[in-house]
Amino acid sequence: MSEPIRVVVTGAAGQIAYFLLYIIAKGDVFGPNQPLILHLLDIPVMMDVLQGVVMELADCALPLLHEVIPTADPAVAFKDVFAAFLVGAMPRRQGMERKDLLSANVKIFKEQGEALDNYARKDVKVLVVGNPANTNALVCSKYAPSLPPENFTAMTRLDQNRARAQIAEKAGVPVSCVSNLIIWGNHSSTQVPDARHAKVMKNGTTMSAADAIQNDSWLKQEFVETIQKRGAAVIAARKMSSAMSAANAAADHMRSWFMGTSNDEFVCMGVMSDGSYGAPKNVVYSFPITIKNGKWSIVQGLKIDDFFANMMNLTGQELEEEHMEYPTINTKSFYGRR
Ligand code: NAD
Ligand code: LMR
Q1: 187 labelled catalytic
Q2: Cα separation, 49 vs 21, whole angstroms
Q3: Do residues 277 and 259 touch, judged by C-beta distance below 8 A?
Q4: Which residues, 6+ apart, have CB-to-CB distance to 333 below 8 Å?
Q5: 247-286 pLDDT, tens per residue?
Q6: What distance in Å separates the CA atoms of residue 27 and residue 184, rounded to the nearest whole number?
Q7: Where does the Lactate/malate dehydrogenase C-terminal domain lie (predicted)?
Q8: Pick from 90, 87, 84: which is nearest to 117 by CA?
């Protein structure tokens, strides 16, 4: 057994964290031989609720969980952390777009960027789940100038998992037979779910999603819209935003980052854009990613036709617009930090 690593989950008294903490603490993210110290951050008014979560974690009697530190102080929460799940933020309600949360959530990611900068390990892996996730991750990185921008990522794994599930159902195969779905751009209704590079194992043969499904117009329309609107559909049904599937995706994202991707597999993550595939630079844009030794790389050389290129431009423009909105909400010192 190695030394314990410190992992922080923010929004620890909330609904996503309720699932996520158990998945992490039982070893399903960092592996069965990695002991953990969990730091749980929430706001002061939630400390009583958080105590209940601490009691439940203790009552799980999980061997890998060496210590739990509940706190409302970011200086304690981010101290020496190896991995950060930034979940704590207001969720949207029915009828809202995720970017409507910018003004509500902006302060959180500024403050937490600063706390990461001051207290976390310099190789900390940061996953932003709180919406609007891509732009929050960008802001967090801007306020943590001593940390490399590649340490900051946003979650689009939930969209990728949703896309996998839809393709599996349509192709009539188990979800384990489907891989390499791509989500381009923003975790919003402009995201671009792209099945053209997906692989489907059907009747003992590996084939493209197009061959497995044989319905091009479904792949370009109904499939794309279903994934773009899935978060809203869950809210309409549950009257609360997705939680179990979001926690599962956050665990998948961090596990892939920590453990790496297998040979011909890629995963999707919002990462600092270098302009690949014509995406705007310096926004957090979701790309297909491979990971080795804890370092991610954008998959290069995939062919993009005009239909998808247009949609990819639109989602990139939306990210630039969200980025431009930040200084008007939060006037001090956003630009010029680096
Ligand atoms: P929730 O309301 O159940 O929990 C949020 C928690 O965050 C609350 O306990 C709240 O007190 C806490 N919080 C608020 N401000 C905080 C701060 N400054 N520091 C620490 N904690 C703070 O919400 P939820 O359902 O768990 O969702 C959390 C966020 O995740 C929302 O923004 C939601 O939209 C987003 N989300 C993202 C994805 C994705 O795919 N990227 C998926 C689902 C949900
Ligand atoms: C989701 O995709 O389920 C989350 O981002 C929650 C939301 O607001 O849709």
Answers
A1: yes
A2: 14
A3: no
A4: none
A5: 999 999 999 999 999 988 999 999 999 999 999 999 999 9
A6: 30
A7: 156-322
A8: 84
Pocket test for ligand 1, best of 241, 268, 269, 322 (most atoms within 8 A of CB): 241
Q: Copy the structure tokens of residue 303.
A: 């062919």
Q: Residue ranges of the alpha helices (H) in the chain?
A: 15-25, 47-59, 74-77, 102-119, 133-142, 157-171, 209-213, 216-217, 223-228, 230-238, 244-259, 306-329
Tokens of 257: 């980052």
* Rounded Cα–Cα distance for residues 260 and 266 (Å): 10
- Residues (pLDDT < 50) of the chain are 331-338
Q: Which amino acid is at 305?
A: D
Q: What is the ipTM of this complex?
A: 0.99
Amino acid residing at 283:
V
d(CA 151, CA 135): 15
Considering only CA atoms, which residue is closest to atom 16 of ligand 1?
88
How far is the centre of ligand 2, averaged over its atoms, from the C-alpha of 242 (Å)? 6
Measured at the CA of 77, the angle between CA 74 and CA 78, to 5 degrees, comes to 85
3-state DSSP assignment of residue 272: strand
Which atom of ligand 2 is least distant from the CA of 246? 3
Cβ < 6 A, ligand 1 pocket:
10-11, 13-16, 41-43, 46, 87-92, 108, 129-131, 133, 155, 158, 187, 241-243, 246
- Quote the tokens at residue 326: 């930040």
